[in-house]
Fold this sequence. Notes:
- 70% of the residues lie in helices and 3% in strands.
- A hairpin with a 3-residue loop joins strand 1 and strand 2 (68-71).
- The protein is mainly α.
- The termini are far apart.
- It contains eleven helices and two strands, in the order αααββαααααααα.
- It folds into two domains: 2-71, Winged helix-like DNA-binding domain superfamily/Winged helix DNA-binding domain (Arc Repressor Mutant, subunit A), CATH 1.10.10.10; 84-232, Four Helix Bundle (Hemerythrin (Met), subunit A).
- Helix 5 runs antiparallel to helix 7 and helix 7 (139-153) runs antiparallel to helix 8 (158-166).
- It has a two-stranded antiparallel sheet with strand order 1-2.
- The relative contact order is 0.12.
- It is elongated and about 60 Å long.
- It has helices at residues 2-21, 34-41, 45-57, 89-113, 116-129, 132-137, 139-153, 158-166, 175-178, 182-204, 208-232, and strands at residues 61-64, 68-71.
Amino acid sequence: xxxxxxxxxxxxxxxxxxxxxxxxxxxxxxxxxxxxxxxxxxxxxxxxxxxxxxxxxxxxxxxxxxxxxxxxxxxxxxxxxxxxxxxxxxxxxxxxxxxxxxxxxxxxxxxxxxxxxxxxxxxxxxxxxxxxxxxxxxxxxxxxxxxxxxxxxxxxxxxxxxxxxxxxxxxxxxxxxxxxxxxxxxxxxxxxxxxxxxxxxxxxxxxxxxxxxxxxxxxxxxxxxxxxxxxxx
Length: 233
C-alpha cells in the first residue's frame, strides 16, 4: 500500500513540476489548495501532501503557514541563457548547434510517440505562423511555441523541460540577420513556414526518419545562414 501511495505521489509531483516548468504556475503564484488538487488528480490528501513535499525538496515551491503553497524561483540554476547572452552572431551560431543536438532527436521521437492531442497542439501553432502578418508581430514566440510543442510530443519529459528552461531566447532574433530589410524578413518567415510544414507533415505521418531530416535541414539552414553572416561581418 505504501508503494502504491508513493507511486501516486510521484505522478502528482511530476505533473505539477511540468506545469511549473511550462509556466502554468509562475514564480509567486499560489498553486491550488489541497482539496482542489485531490479533485484534479483523484487522490487522497496524504498523496497530495507527499507530492508537495517532493516539490519543496526540489526547490520548486514553498509553504506559507495558513496561506498556501507558492512557486519559488529556483536557486542557482545549472543552466541559464538570457537574451543579453545571445546578442552576437557567434553566440547565435553556438546556440543553433546546441539546438541541433536536441531537436532533431525530439522530432524523430515525436513522429513515433505523438498523440492526437500533441498533433493538434503542433498544428495550432503552425496555423498561426501561416498568417505572415501575425508571425511578423511575434516571430520568436510563435517559432518557439512550434518547437516546444514538438518537444512535448517527443514523449521524453526532459526535452520540453530543456526547451522551457532556456525559453524563447533559444530562437535567434531575425533582426540580427535582416535589420531594416522588412521585405527580406517576410520572405524569411515564409521559408520558415514552409520548413515547419515539412517537419509537421513528417511527424503527422509517423515518419521518424523524415521528421529528423526535416528538422535537421530547418536548423542547419539557419545555422549556415548565420555562419555566412558571421564570415561577412
